[in-house]
Design a protein that fits this description.
Blueprint (H helix, E strand, L loop, with lengths): L18 E3 L6 E3 L12 E13 L4 E12 L6 E6 L3 E10 L8 E2 L2 E7 L2 E7 L8 E10 L5 E4 L11 E4 L20 E8 L5 E4 L3 E5 L4 E10 L6 E4 L2 E6 L2 E5 L1 H11 L2 H13 L8 E5 L7 E2 L4 E5 L6 H13 L7 E3 L6 H19 L1 H22 L24 H18 L2 H15 L2 E3 L1 H11 L6 H6 L2 H6 L14 H19 L10 H5 L6 H14 L4 H15 L4 H13 L6 H10 L3 H13 L3 H11 L5 H17 L26 E2 L7 E2 L4 E2 L7 E2 L163
Parallel strand pairs: 3-13, 19-20, 20-22, 23-24
Antiparallel strand pairs: 1-2, 3-4, 4-10, 5-9, 6-7, 6-10, 8-9, 11-12, 12-17, 13-16, 14-17, 15-16, 18-19, 21-22, 25-28, 26-27
Helix pairs in contact: 2-3, 2-4, 3-4, 4-5, 4-6, 5-6, 5-11, 5-13, 11-13, 13-15, 15-16, 15-17, 16-18, 17-18, 17-19, 18-19
Keywords: Hydrolase, Metal-binding, Metalloprotease, Protease, Zinc
Cofactor: Zn(2+)
InterPro entries: Aminopeptidase_N-like_N, Aminopeptidase_N-like_N_sf, ARM-type_fold, LTA4H_cat, M1_LTA-4_hydro/amino_C_sf, M1_LTA4H, Peptidase_M1, Peptidase_M1_C
Length: 868
């Protein structure tokens, strides 16, 4: 990684022989991504194609990757690709593209160790001249890697069919397919995916088709994208069209709820964004709601945004997350940070764009309230890490061997937002700054950039700021490299109509707190009435400020409970978890039955982990162990192991026996390392399946959260009876003994579906909407006892991504507890948005438009799937 002050551009990469030269700048440095081992500067990736078969019984993708490359550096005789120990490469073939009639020749290859989150695939090449075109074909299969998440039926919302999805941000897709796994490299791609009957495949692609006879889905992404934005999901999915370029996908049990919540909002948000930032550059803006096991809140995969179904509980949180992901269609997907050290270029700009959109649609007051909550979380996290922590820098340094997911935190989003707001302030005009952002997108669309590109573009647009004096006064270097709080925060006084009632109520409770609690009569009705008409973000701000003062006296907690507990329990999980955290932190046992009920109901990381952390660190640890032992079977194995390690470590430190945590697996738990929150991942991008199911995807982009990738759940699937898992019924997982995967035929890998890998010419266009969709049940997540994967041979559960657990915060898993933080009068509050999700009630509630007209859900006639 380069020094904090070094700024470079990757756009002249190939013409400059592997160096980046910022136009008109003295900065010129080699482009080195310390998180990647590839030699992308020696080659130009023109296109790649994936041809895959999905096998649910073996939990495996198998097939091949074809890369179309051109030589940039004459004499380059080795191709280095990012890979992962979980990829099983079988062969590598070379073909000279200038000699189409020659047969491919097999070439030597090897796999070298790189870091705990990846390896290097080294391919020997014949001597090639500059500009020579050639093709590499790699035949491989996946095993347990951090990018691919397999869910047994009981972990899905409908609980009838398994589901698989991929999550590539930041550097996980190297365990999905060998690649130049760096955001500096972009290319178009295509894919052919074969699946068993009854499953639908979606990808982050602009076009798609489905061939029913071959059960084959075909995809084309026509615009260049970085490797981390290649995404796939396969399961029992159905769709509903929201507008001419937007569609929502979900399991059948969730679809109607999602449609009613979103309505026509997506098309409205897109129209507003286009007025501000220019044309939407992706053909589709589709959304797919994933089960609570999804490791982050949302991911902006182009044309197809992935979003966790848990956010359907809160309309306000849902709309903010979706708008953030849609904003990535311009900032992050169209114009991408070339270096992970500049992630703020995607997340900070997307957060700014999100708030420009919500300001236009929902008004100043709502937008300022949401910003107060997020900036409050930023200051809370700053108090935890300290003003001198390098984590708080905009251009956070990335050391070799460190997973870039560790850079995803509130500073990436909120300090980045403050810097962009500062640039708007110094230019002197909101409308002129909107024009600048539109020009920035037009100049750099489909390219990867660094901070200096943005700054130079800004100074060229506002030439009166270009002088040396102005550049010094602007403190641009300090913004990028200095630790600590933002040098500027925008004026949020327009939110006073919503924030002041919160501060007034906090002041009343503060007076109540300083009174003689023993002789104090119960609070007056005035205390209880204020909250009834408040929005989610107002209540979140109120509870976050109370959490800052915790622990509170038991008498005060009794009065708070009498006033608010029943009301909070009628609201969404964003409110409930904060109230329960406050109860646990204060040791208020009267509400423990609600803690138990909440943890039995909500199975996502974003809600379970923060609450278990509170339980494990305080006097109620034994209650936490009891609840975990009762509910662990309903948790995704990766989350289960994380919580098991958390509770076990606490037991050890307090001298208790490890056996108090009952495990469902033999062998040690995987190292999950839950990390800093990190990917706001906002906004989901990615669209799938257009139209007559044919255009499968055209989607949105967005990584709110930066989308961080979670630790896949570790574990290698245990070889039951020493043998391979049989593939029954075309890849359907046989359900034996309550969900255990049995090994039929004594260890032979029975290939029952025999699926031949089809020729990947991209050929016939088929209707891509994917087959029959089974009707799930009401979306309640049942207690999936039997579907646990047993570790039969004592098989160690592997740590999917080297133990790095993407902490999803931008969106952000804000530190729920945040430590002892002072009451920040400016109205900032911690944001509790985390990863994963909770179960969704199918209440069909329409998403409310705070301060504006509601967008009613429109119903569109779905076209029958076209067939090829």
């Amino acid at each position: 990684m380069s020094a904090p002050g070094s700024l470079f551009c990757c756009r002249s990469l190939h013409s400059s022989g592997g160096h980046c030269a910022a136009p008109g700048s003295e900065h010129c440095r080699p482009l080195v991504d310390v998180a990647s081992s590839c030699n992308h500067a020696d080659f130009h990736l023109r296109h790649f194609h994936l041809d895959l078969q999905i096998n649910f019984a073996q939990k495996q993708f198998s097939g091949w990757l074809v890369m179309d490359l051109s030589v940039v550096s004459p004499g380059a005789q080795v191709l280095l690709l990012d890979s992962h120990p979980s990829l099983m490469v079988r062969s590598v073939d070379f073909k000279d593209s200038t000699r189409p009639h020659d047969s491919p020749q097999e070439v030597p290859w090897s796999s070298d160790t790189f870091t705990e989150f990846g390896s290097t695939l080294r391919v020997a090449l014949p001597e090639l001249k500059a500009a020579r075109d050639f093709q590499i074909t790699i035949r491989y299969s996946t095993t347990d890697g951090p990018a691919v998440w397999w869910l047994d039926p009981e972990l899905t919302c409908g609980q009838t069919r398994p589901l698989v999805f991929t999550q590539g941000h930041c550097v996980c897709n190297r365990s999905f397919f060998p690649c130049f796994d760096t955001p500096a490299v972009k290319s178009p791609y295509s894919a052919t995916v074969r699946v068993p009957d009854g499953f639908t495949v979606l990808m982050s692609a602009s076009r798609s088709m489905f061939c029913r006879d071959q059960r084959e889905f075909r995809f084309w992404m026509d615009e260049p994208v970085p490797s981390y934005l290649v995404a796939l999901v396969c399961g029992d999915l159905q769709h509903h069209d929201l507008g001419p370029r937007s569609r929502v996908w979900a399991e059948p049990s969730l679809l109607s709820c999602a449609v009613q919540k979103i309505g026509g909002s997506v098309e409205h948000w897109l129209s507003v964004a286009e007025e501000l930032f220019g044309a939407y550059l992706w053909s589709r803006c589709d959304l797919v709601f994933l089960p609570p096991s999804f490791p982050i809140v949302a991911m902006e995969n182009p044309c197809l945004t992935f979003i966790i179904s848990s956010v359907l509980e809160s309309s306000e949180v849902l709309l903010v997350d979706l708008v953030h992901e849609i904003s990535h269609g311009w900032f992050g997907n169209a114009v991408t940070n070339a270096s992970w050290e500049d992630m703020w270029l995607s997340e900070g700009l997307a957060t700014y764009a999100q708030r420009r959109i919500t300001k236009e649609v929902y008004g100043d007051a709502f937008t300022c309230l949401e910003t107060v909550v997020r900036l409050d979380a930023l200051h809370r996290q700053l108090r935890l890490v300290g003003d001198t922590s390098s984590v708080s820098r905009l251009q956070a340094p990335l050391e070799r061997g460190v997973n870039p997911s560790s850079l995803m935190n509130l500073f990436t989003y909120e300090k980045g937002f403050c810097f962009v707001s500062y640039l708007c302030e110094v230019c002197g005009s909101q409308s002129e700054f909107d024009l600048f952002l539109k020009d920035y997108i037009a100049q750099f669309q489909f390219q990867s950039v660094v901070a200096q590109d943005l700054i130079l573009c800004f100074l060229q647009h506002f030439p009166h700021l270009h002088s040396t004096t102005y550049r010094t006064d602007l403190q641009l270097d300090q913004w990028l490299s200095a630790c600590g709080p933002p040098l500027y925060e925008p004026d949020l006084s327009a939110g006073g109509t919503l924030t002041q009632p919160v501060f007034d109520l906090l002041s009343l409770w503060s007076q109540h707190m300083t009174s003689d609690l023993c002789n104090l009569s119960p609070p007056s009705p005035h205390f209880t009435s204020d909250l009834c008409s408040w929005s989610t973000f107002q209540i979140v701000l109120f509870l976050d400020r109370l959490l800052d003062q915790a622990p509170l006296p038991q008498e005060l907690m009794s009065h708070l409970s009498a006033c608010y507990s029943a009301h909070f329990w009628k609201l969404n999980a964003e409110v409930q978890i904060r109230w329960l955290q406050l109860c646990v932190r204060c040791g208020f046992c009267s509400e423990m039955f609600r803690v138990r009920d909440f943890l039995h109901k909500h199975t996502s990381r974003m809600y379970t982990l923060p609450l278990y952390e509170e339980l494990a660190s305080g006097s109620l640890r034994s209650r936490g162990l009891e609840i975990f032992n009762q509910s662990q079977r309903s948790l995704h194995p990766s989350l289960r192991r994380s919580l098991q390690a958390l509770l076990t470590n606490q037991s050890t430190s307090e001298g208790n026996n490890h056996s108090t945590v009952k495990t469902l697996h033999k062998g040690p738990p995987a190292n999950h390392n839950e990390g800093l929150p990190a990917n706001h991942n906002e906004g989901l991008p990615a669209n799938h399946d257009e139209g007559p199911p044919a255009n499968h995807d055209e989607g949105l982009p967005a990584n709110h959260d930066g989308g961080q990738q979670a630790n896949h759940d570790g574990g290698q699937q245990a070889n039951h009876d020493g043998g391979q898992q049989a593939n029954h019924d075309g890849g359907q997982q046989a359900n034996h003994d309550g969900g255990q995967q049995a090994n039929h035929d004594g260890g032979q890998q029975a290939n029952h579906d025999g699926g031949q890998q089809a020729n990947h010419d991209g050929g016939q266009q088929a209707n891509h909407d994917g087959g029959q969709q089974a009707n799930h049940d009401g979306g309640q997540q049942a207690n999936h006892d039997g579907g646990q994967q047993a570790n039969h041979d004592g098989g160690q559960q592997a740590n999917h991504d080297g133990g790095q657990q993407a902490n999803h915060d931008g969106g952000q898993k804000a530190n729920h507890n945040g430590g002892p933080l002072a009451n920040q009068n400016g109205g900032q509050s911690s944001e509790n948005k985390t990863q994963n999700g909770k179960q969704i009630k199918q209440n069909g509630g329409q998403m409310q438009n705070p301060g504006a007209t509601n967008h009613k859900a429109a119903c569109y006639q779905l076209s029958p799937p076209s067939q090829a």
